Amino acid sequence: MNPFDVTGFLGSAGLIGLIVLIFVETGLLVGFIFPGDSILFTAGIFAAQPQPFAQLWQLLVFLPLAAIVGDQCGYAIGRYAGPKVMRGRVMNFIGQGPVDKTYEFFDKYGPFTVLFARFIGIVRTLVPVLAGFSKMDHRKFTLFSVLGSLLWCDGIVLLGYFLGGIPLLRDNLEVLFIGSAITIIVPIAITVITRRRARRREEAAREVAETAPADR
């Protein structure tokens, strides 16, 4: 199956698959690879078709719930396994750049970051973990998580639903999906390449220092 065939994914995975995807994107660090915005938008377009894979009300109820539960999972991971997670492979792969960006949002917007981060790829995956790691007040986190989940999931689904009749959008879903995926993959690839080059320079400098004759 074409990995960018979002219509095929929604048709075969259905509502359950979409719920799992939203949960993973918001609750587990590995979920940063998913372009949730495009999938939510496409799900809304599908809901407007004569034979949808799921009814609109099901999307509006269950997808925010999946995001809320995912947030709680991410918060718990950050709070109780924070140091280990921060040193883990997934976080190392994501890189320090997105983490620093997320902390900057917290410094600037405080708890509202949990709300606004919903609409920023990668950041929405990092926020629950970093909120738990920094021991953000759980009730405050939950409040903004619920608000953000409703705005993100229902807002984008409804946007897709009401724009679903536009042929240009309906007939080019894969292009939309690929474009969203590129906006996530390219920054990650740049970060990985930059870090590898920096590591090689450090190793080369260390080798030169070790082989150079000691000063007398």
TrEMBL record:
Q: Name one GO cellular component term.
A: plasma membrane
The protein's matches in InterPro entries, at most eight in alphabetical order, are given as:
DedA-like, VTT_dom
Keywords assigned:
Cell membrane, Membrane, Transmembrane, Transmembrane helix
The compartments listed are:
Cell membrane
**Source species, domain of life:** Bacteria
Membrane-protein topology = Multi-pass membrane protein
Q: Which residues form the VTT domain?
A: 34-161
Tell me its family: Belongs to the DedA family.
According to UniProt, the name of this protein is SNARE associated Golgi protein-related protein
**Whose protein is this, by species?**
Tsukamurella paurometabola (strain ATCC 8368 / DSM 20162 / CCUG 35730 / CIP 100753 / JCM 10117 / KCTC 9821 / NBRC 16120 / NCIMB 702349 / NCTC 13040)
Question: What are the leading ranks of the lineage?
Answer: Bacteria, Bacillati, Actinomycetota, Actinomycetes, Mycobacteriales
